[in-house]
Amino acid sequence: xxxxxxxxxxxxxxxxPNVFIGVSIAENGWAPGEYIDAWYETIPNAHITTDLVFxxxxxILWSSWDGPRSGVRRWWVVIPATxxxxxxxxxxxxxxxxxxxxxxxxxxxxxxx
Length: 113
Fold this sequence. Notes:
Structural class: mainly alpha
Largest sheet: none
Shape: elongated
Number of helices: 5
């Protein structure tokens, strides 16, 4: 059940931010510089942007330590996932991969007969 929930959150984390990018492109055309400039247009925008960038950097650092220790294969895919799509995609993706890796290493629980 956990794997399905984490996979669903990963999909939502991919789709949700990309909808906003699509809307921005539809309204303003392809202007990456203007899009990034808007992140710092106001103090609240700058606050949330800085907060998310810092959280993403800490997450990347932690996942680079935790991935090999927890046996997460291809843990490094969260780096491009986080920076190309967003923290809302990279984090649930890593948690999905981590839960899957832990599940593969745990012995199967056999119910008593």
